[in-house]
Design brief:
Number of helices: 10
Strand order of the largest sheet: 3-2-1-4-5-6-7
Order of helices and strands: EHEHEHEHEHEHHHEHH
Length: 249
């Protein structure tokens, strides 16, 4: 049974991945998030979609996911690690649950989901890790979030190299700001950040559809729009102290 697995599927970019993947040739699409009711609404009228209401920061829920894979004798052809969140604000004023929560979900859960799923992947499978332009340089007032995404970026590139021998591609998707639930959950309201107020938005639907195509071609990184591709280059070439001054949030 060929399966696609999408985490963080209940809203924003994740919902568009479900829409895009549903048009491809998978036997089942497993959608994962905490909000069961919303997942069930997304899955309505599509018999290929299987709902898994899981909190990926909980060890028991990760074990439940592993058991589901074993019981299905799954062959996971696509894993989209989309679950994650961010918070805008000075680090010393941030709640401990938010600091630790970003690390637990953005880094630990993504790593363990990948580790579990790889045992059920064969040749010509794909892993798509949702990263961010925040991975390209440190970001004051998003110190933890940008650090977690730098981890995802580095992890994806290193894992891609490791998995070449198994013919499994790993791609990091690095979007710019999108008008999704992410901004509200990150406490990024209009007027709270000059940078976010002025940065061009990217389309989550376009990101989902186009990144799937890029992944099939074997790309290592996908960044939407020339503006953010330039920022990626500047993050490589310029000292980070200078980049941080340019991108103050």
């Amino acid at each position: 049974m060929n399966i696609a697995v999408i985490t963080g599927a209940s809203s924003g970019l994740g919902k568009f991945y479900v829409e895009a993947v549903a048009k491809e040739n998978y036997d089942e699409i497993w959608i994962i998030a905490r909000r069961k009711e919303i997942l069930e609404q997304i899955a309505e009228n599509n018999k290929k979609i299987k709902v898994l209401a899981l909190d990926l920061t909980k060890e028991g829920d990760l074990e439940a996911y592993k058991t589901e894979l074993q019981n299905a004798n799954a062959n996971v052809k696509l894993l989209v690690n989309n679950a994650g969140f961010g918070k805008l604000g000075d680090f010393d004023a941030m709640a401990q649950r938010d600091c630790g929560g970003m690390v637990d979900l953005n880094c630990k859960a993504l790593t363990l989901m990948t580790n579990i799923t790889l045992a059920f992947m064969q040749e010509k499978s794909e892993i798509i890790n949702i990263c961010s332009i925040a991975a390209f340089a440190p970001n004051p007032r998003m110190a933890v979030y940008s650090s977690t995404k730098a981890y995802v970026f580095s992890f994806s590139k290193a894992l891609r190299e490791e998995l070449k021998k198994r013919k499994i591609n790993v791609m990091a998707v690095c979007p710019g700001p999108m008008d999704t639930e992410f901004l509200a959950l990150a406490d990024i309201a209009p007027g709270t950040s000059h940078t976010f107020d002025t940065l061009p938005r990217v389309s989550p639907k376009r990101i989902a559809y186009k990144s799937l195509k890029k992944s099939k071609k074997g790309n290592a990184v996908y960044t939407e729009s020339a503006f953010y591709k330039l920022y990626r280059i500047l993050g490589k070439l310029l000292p980070h102290n200078l980049v941080m001054k340019m991108s103050k949030t």
